[in-house]
Amino acid sequence: MDSGSSRDEEPTDIVPGAHVRANDGGPVMTVTGVTRSLAFCSWEEAGNVHHATFARLTLRVVPAGE
Q: What is the pLDDT of residue 64?
């Protein structure tokens, strides 16, 4: 039995406070909330705060220092 997650399973390490990035790149964002399949994120760019909602499957956690 495989204990790893498949691409169709929602990531369990995407939790409020986690730093994430879209799988296809972009800024590092802070997760501000989650549902079963969505992550609510915010980030700062050029002095402006942005907010957006992403499917959790489209995000990856950014290791500290990246």
A: 81
CATH code assigned at 41: 2.30.30.140
Contact of 58 with 23, CB cutoff 8 Å? yes
- Inform me whether the pLDDT recorded for 59 exceeds 90: yes
Identity at 63, one-letter amino acid code: P
Q: Which domain holds residue 11?
A: 1-66
Its pTM stands at 0.81
Q: DSSP for the chain?
A: ---SPPTTSPPSS--TT-EEEETTEEEEEEEEEE-SSEEEEEEEETTEEEEEEEEGGGEEEPPTT-
Please enumerate in sequence order all residues whose Cβ is within 8 A of that of 29, keeping only pairs 6 or more positions apart, or say none: 19, 20, 21, 41, 42, 43, 52
